[in-house]
Amino acid sequence: VWLDRIEFLVIDEADRLLDMGFIPSVKRIVRYSPFKEQRQTLMFSATFSYDVLNLARQWLFEPVTVEIEPEHKTNNDVEQRVYVVENKDKYKLLQEILKDEPIDKVMIFANRRDQVRRLYDHLKRDGYKVGMLSGEIAQDKRLKMLDQFKQGKNNIMIATDVAGRGIHVDGVSHVINFTLPEQSDDYVHRIGRTGRAGAQGVSISFLSEDDAFYLPEIEKAIGKKLPLTRLEGYC
Fold it and tell me: Which of 54, 84, 131, 201 could disulfide-link 154, Cβ–Cβ 3.0 to 4.6 Å?
């Protein structure tokens, strides 16, 4: 690849590249590219923190800023539920939901790679058709698992926010937040995996003692209170 000959440089998900520690690699690519005055550079980011803006100043030449703010933070076609549950009972509740809900395809999100791995191992052991997307999975294996999910060979996909971002799969009927995300933007992004193209979707979030801290910011971001359901035997 002759990077000194490129005309366009597109840096997508700049905030995620920062979070995942990929910026040194991107800087290396930029160094081998033509000077910013001699190429067109496009940078996309869900959030524009100080660090992202600093990168923009380094890499962009006389940039034009385009901001898109959705009228509604969350899709009205997605039914949002929050179940109050103790940490120790989350997996048991997850199994009940997988058994009782009319699920076509479901994406289950957790905050950390070890949580994703543990869920994957448990569900696989219990006979579910399941895939996994996280930073520890090699890219070729990720693509294979994603393809199996798209084709319906696996109907459950467990993912971290980093690995799950930007994934568009038809027919995802449910999203389950096994852990609430620490960033409210990630909640909006997660539940946007369902209820696409006019279809109805369901988002189910588990609220334990560890997750409760994140709920107020999520409600503030989406502009409404989420009704809490206390299930008998789980709280």
Answer: 131
| 69 part of a folded domain | no
* CA count, 13 A, side-chain hemisphere, 14: 23
5 burial level (CB within 10 Å; 0-12, 13-18, 19+): exposed
Q: Residue 217: is its pLDDT beyond 80?
A: yes
Query: Do residues 46 and 91 share a domain?
Result: no
| pLDDT bucket at 128, cuts 50 / 70 / 90 | very high
pTM flag (> 0.85) = no
> What is the DSSP secondary-structure string of 6-75?
-SEEEE-SHHHHHHHT-HHHHHHHHHHSPPGGGSEEEE--S---HHHHHHHHHH-SSPPP-----SSSS-
What does the pLDDT look like over 191-207, one tens digit per residue? 988 887 778 899 999 99
67 assigned to some structural domain:
no
DSSP string across 91-109? HHHHHHHHHHS--SEEEEE
Q: What single string gives the DSSP state of each residue in 38-50? A: GSEEEE--S---H
- Rounded to 10 deg, the angle between the 90-100 and 113-125 helix axes is 50
What is the pLDDT, as a whole number, of residue 164?
Answer: 64
Query: Residue 167 has which token pair?
Result: 């994934």
- Six-digit token string for 43: 């940078």
Mean pLDDT of the chain: 89
Burial of 185 (0-12, 13-18, 19+ CB in 10 A): middle
Which residue range is the domain that position 27 belongs to?
A: 3-59
